[in-house]
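User: Some background: our group keeps a shared notebook of sequences we're curious about, and every so often someone picks one and asks for a predicted structure to add to the entry. Today it's my turn. The entry only has the sequence so far, pasted here. Could you supply the structure so I can complete it?
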Amino acid sequence: MQRLIAAALLALLTACAAPTTTPAPSAPAAPLAVPVATLVPALAALPGAEALEGEVGVGYPGEVLFAAGAVLPLPGGLELLDPLAEVLHAHPGNRWSLRVRAATEHGKDYDLALAEGRAGLLQRFFTRRGISAERLDWQVAAEDGAPLEVRPLP
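Assistant: Of course. Here's the predicted structure to add to the notebook entry:
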């Protein structure tokens, strides 16, 4: 009988004990952005790209990526962007501005649709390379200039 009472008391004491909990895993810390100035050498080494004058960034001029008036890239055009995707992937804390332009003799509406088509293709390209869409700020414009310009955001 004493054993039964002792077992019952032990069960009651055990039930009153605070449960042991495992702390919830903390979310991984967001990667830190590197200073924009430290990106200059990596951007300068990109094939097919030219440094932007007076600011940090590069442009892919003329018909390096796209033929005039075409949404689809030139043969080998997207392969030129693989090194850019590697730079973006290597700096996960940085955000980027990508400006896609088109200017033809067909008018502003056509040029804007062309730039939007190119931007859509480029967005899919970078997404497939593992670049988060939240890190890329896209702008499209019907204007003269490099068909693609890339700048790190401060």
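Suggested note for the entry: The two ends are 77 Å apart (CA to CA). The CA atoms of residues 15 and 104 lie 78 Å apart.
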